[in-house]
Each structure stands twice: as C-alpha cells, then as structure tokens.
Amino acid sequence: MWRLRSDLADREARSWTRALMRDCAAKVVALYAAGAPELLLDFTGTPAPAVDPALPATLAARADASEHATTLAGFLRHRRAATGLSAADVAEAALLPLPVVTSWEDGAAAAPSQLIRCAPVLQLPEETLIAAGQGLRDADYWPLPTPPPAALGRR
C-alpha cells in the first residue's frame, strides 16, 4: 500500500500509510458505533453493538508496533534473529558500546559511520545497512513481516 506514495522514501511512505490506516480505523470505529448502515448490511433495524472504548487505543498500539517492525530497529532485530546474535554480540564485534546498539533497536538514529561497523557481524553488505538506516528496504535481507498463522485463520 505504501507504494501508492511512490514519490516518497520508504520511511516517509510507511509513515503516510500508517497515518492513513489509523484514520481509516478511526472512521470505521466511529461508523460502527453509530450503527452506520453501510457497515451493518444484514442488520437492518438492529441497534449497533457496543464498541469497546479501548478499541481505538488498541488499534493505535498495533499500528505503532507495526511501524516499529518496519524501521531500522525492526531490521536490526530481524538480522540478529536470523544470525542468532545478541545485541551484546553485535556491539562487541563492531567495537561499539552496548547502549549504542540497544538504542538503535529502541528507535534512536544511527550514525552511518557506526552502523557500517555492524555490517560484517550481521552478514550484510554495508550499503544494505546504510539504506536500512535511511528507511529503505532490501527484500533480500529484510522481507516483509509474515502474519502469524492465527491472524490468517490457521492454527
């Protein structure tokens, strides 16, 4: 969906898409709570069920988690999991303090000169890691997240 905004960089397009999804979710919740006929097609004359007041906050939290998984922080976690490394392993191999590496995984900006020091241990080309720091995605190293089977209706 974020490709609809192809004039934007990946990071900007993801933020735009996230804002769009939040807006759509808020509108659906509001229409559902109001008993809008376009959402209750088979329930003519039936009052709308009560909407959980925490639903908008839940949807916002899910959007935030999804956004975090598609940033440099999510990429670093993905690569560490793929290589079986801890944050301490990456910090030690890159000769960086552990708080620097963990701050990147908490969403802090990464200096390219420090980030490229992590490329060998994460088994990545330097340009792929630099691109990830700029919000770009290389599908060979950073596939889109796979929904859990339960979300797809499977067990």
Summarize the structure.
With 155 residues, this protein is mainly alpha-helical.
| Tally of separate helices | 7
How far is the first residue's CA from the last residue's CA?
27 Å
Taken as a percent bin, the fraction of beta residues is under 5%
| Overall body shape | elongated
Number of strands: 0
- pLDDT average, as an integer? 78
Helix proportion range: 40-55%
InterPro entries: Lambda_DNA-bd_dom_sf
GO molecular function: DNA binding
Protein name: Helix-turn-helix domain-containing protein
How would you describe the overall organization of this protein?
This protein is mostly helical and 155 residues long. The chain folds into 2 domains: 2-67, no CATH class; 72-133, lambda repressor-like DNA-binding domains (434 Repressor (Amino-terminal Domain), Orthogonal Bundle), CATH 1.10.260.40. The chain is built from 7 helices and no strands. It has helices at 10-33, 55-69, 72-83, 87-94, 98-105, 112-115, 126-133. α1 (10-33) runs antiparallel to α2. The longest helix has 24 residues, at 10-33. The radius of gyration is 20 Å and the shape is elongated. GO terms for molecular function: DNA binding. This is Helix-turn-helix domain-containing protein. InterPro entries: Lambda_DNA-bd_dom_sf. It comes from Amycolatopsis rubida.
Q: SSE layout and pairings?
A:
Blueprint: H1 10-33, H2 55-69, H3 72-83, H4 87-94, H5 98-105, H6 112-115, H7 126-133
Helix pairs in contact: 1-2, 4-5
Label this structure with key terms.
mainly alpha, 434 Repressor (Amino-terminal Domain), 0% strand, elongated, 155 residues, 2 domains
